[in-house]
TrEMBL record:
Protein name (record): Fructose-bisphosphate aldolase
Pathway(s) of this molecule: Carbohydrate degradation; glycolysis; D-glyceraldehyde 3-phosphate and glycerone phosphate from D-glucose: step 4/4
UniProt KW Lyase keyword: yes
Family, similarity comment: Belongs to the class I fructose-bisphosphate aldolase family.
SUPFAM superfamilies in UniProt: Aldolase
Pfam families, sorted: Glycolytic
The species this protein was found in: Thiobacillus sedimenti
Keywords for this protein: Glycolysis, Lyase
Gene3D superfamilies (UniProt xref): Aldolase class I (3.20.20.70)
Chemical reaction(s) catalysed: beta-D-fructose 1,6-bisphosphate = D-glyceraldehyde 3-phosphate + dihydroxyacetone phosphate
Record's keyword annotation contains RNA-binding: no
EC annotation from Swiss-Prot or TrEMBL: 4.1.2.13
UniProt-listed InterPro entries: Aldolase_I_AS, Aldolase_TIM, FBA_I
Single annotated GO MF: fructose-bisphosphate aldolase activity
Length: 334
């Protein structure tokens, strides 16, 4: 493992003004997104949509890395340029989602565990050859007011994340470690903080056991936030302060960057929260974004599968990237 290379890729992804565009929806997930705008999920429509994202003018100022899905990593522009090559040529680092989805965890009703470790070493070697420089694995932590997640559910997911991260570093890829405590449910922000703390604590203990070098990874956590169905939604400042407090307790300062997922927040809320965290002052790590829905929802709404709307869709993407680029430095004004 060349730690200097890993460090320099991790730092480039979260350079000033920059974050990550998560465009790694699996086939079932992109079908859901396309269904919402009545576009059929064919291979060509998926290719065209990703081409619209990756060729949008100006996004390279705000996007340090893009996460791709296996199919997308192998696709090309209309002119035949492979997407990883197109992105790298624009100064955007290509990455790849390598997990194979969350499944029910046996004997732990309600908990999930993410699959995809078998054969991962060989897949990582191929992804690296295809141009990927970083990878992502998402653990899904179900939460309720009392019973979920179980202690073992947390442990199983932390262990899988650490095995994935060690394999990535061995292969020379920067692991983005994503333990996502979901926003679904009626729990309050206090419960989210307790669970997020337990999860981060377990994840960093496992990463350490597995000899993962914190300097050569990025963390992609949820923000600490009330469940969508909670009647008591916390304000922007409370979300920012609670999230930073929780992260400061459990995320080592050696980690170069934290890139939040948006997790179902509106595009505007995700930007507000990121800005408020950065406006609090300097933190031990870069605090940036790795948004999927919060960057793409306005793009899908503008595009609706029609070529005449491509320019509007690309403008919508640039706008969200620019605003999050500002928020990532605490300079966004709504
Ligand atoms: P969201 O920002 O839509 O949560 O997606 C980010 C992601 O990559 C989830 O794995």
């Amino acid at each position: 493992m060349n730690l200097d290379e890993l460090k320099s890729v991790a730092n480039a992804i979260v350079a000033r003004q920059k974050g990550v565009l998560a465009a790694d929806e699996s086939s079932p997930t992109i079908k859901k997104r396309f269904d919402s705008i009545q576009v059929e999920s064919t291979e060509e429509n998926r290719r065209r949509y990703r081409e619209i994202l990756f060729t949008a003018d100006g996004i390279e100022r705000y996007v340090g890395g893009v996460i791709l899905f296996d199919e997308t990593l192998r696709q090309c522009t209309r002119e035949g340029v492979p997407f990883p090559k197109l992105l790298a040529g624009r100064g955007i680092i290509p990455g790849i989602k390598v997990d194979q989805g969350a499944k029910a965890l046996a004997l732990c009703p309600g908990d999930k565990v993410t699959e995809g470790l078998d054969g991962l070493r060989e897949r990582l070697a191929e992804y690296k050859q295809l141009g990927a420089q970083f990878a992502k694995w998402r653990a899904v932590i179900e939460i309720d007011e009392r019973d979920l997640p179980s202690a073992f559910g947390i442990r199983a997911n932390a262990h899988a994340l650490a095995r994935y991260a060690a394999l990535c570093q061995e292969a020379g890829l920067v692991p983005i470690v994503e333990p996502e405590v979901l926003m679904d449910g009626a729990h309050g922000i206090e419960r989210c903080e307790v669970v997020t703390a337990q999860v981060l604590q377990a994840v960093f203990a496992e990463l350490d056991f597995h000899r993962v070098q914190f300097e050569g990874m990025l963390l992609k956590p949820n923000m600490v936030i009330a469940g969508k169905k909670s009647v008591q939604q916390a304000g922007v400042q409370a979300v920012a302060e609670t999230t930073i407090r929780c992260l400061k307790r459990y995320v080592p300062a050696a980690v170069p960057g934290i890139v939040f997922l948006s997790g179902g927040q509106s595009a505007e809320d995700a930007t507000d929260h990121l800005n408020a965290m950065n406006a609090m002052g300097a933190h031990p790590w870069q605090v940036s974004f790795s948004y999927g829905r919060a960057l793409q929802a306005p793009v899908l709404a503008a595009w609706r599968g029609q070529e005449i709307h491509v320019a509007a869709a690309q403008r919508a993407l640039l706008k969200r990237c620019r605003l999050n680029g500002l928020a990532r430095d605490g300079q966004y004004v709504r």
